[in-house]
Amino acid sequence: MFRTVRKKANEIGVGEAKKLLHEARRGVLAVNGDGGYPYAVPVNYLYDEEKQEIIFHGAKVGHKVDSLKKCDKVCFTVVSGESVEIEDEAWAPFLKSAVVFGRCHLVADRGESDALCKKFAMKYYPTEKMVDDEVAASGKAVRMFRIEIEHISGKRVQER
Predict the structure, then answer these.
(1) CA gap 160, 36 in Å, rounded
(2) In this structure, which long-range contacts are made by residues 84-93, counting pairs with CB atoms below 8 Å and at least 24 apart in sequence?
């Protein structure tokens, strides 16, 4: 059902793609937007490998929420691991990307949403106290979403 990476020489294994999902700080969420146009937006996220899901937060209303109500199928992409390799005075930047396809849903249960919000925030905040303070201050306005991963692929490309 999902396409494979076309240039097999550029493909990285699923394990390496998962590593990128753990390491990157931001990804791009693509949904089926208004009028048949795709809508892609950068988001902070947390990859839960054990549950095979991507967790992110958002507002209660907006383009993303409206689009997800119409269609839960999404694509999520991260780009990371950029390096420059020099060989015989020639150089070329390389980067890696991971692409996830899945189904995205709003976490409706408030208790579960708060717990996911804290787990997610621990990736970005330096202390648990700061996370607890932030969740207490703005947790009611935040909605948590989860992408149930159906497919992961990755590749390494040279930019030249």
Answers:
(1) 33
(2) 92/158, 92/159, 92/160, 93/158, 93/159, 93/160
Prediction pTM value: 0.88
Tell me the per-residue pLDDT of 27-44, one tens digit each, with 9 for 90 and over.
Answer: 999 999 999 999 999 999
Coil, strand or helix: which one is 134?
A: helix
- Helix, coil or strand: residue 31: strand
Q: DSSP states of 47-93 as a string?
A: EETTTTEEEEEE-SSSHHHHHHHH--EEEEEEEEEEEEEEETTEEEE
Query: What's the gap between Cα 43 and its chain centre?
Result: 7
How many whole angstroms separate alpha carbon 160 and alpha carbon 157?
Answer: 9
**Model confidence over 88-130: pLDDT tens digits?**
666 778 889 999 999 999 999 988 998 999 999 999 999 999 9
- C-alpha 147/C-alpha 63 separation (Å) is 17
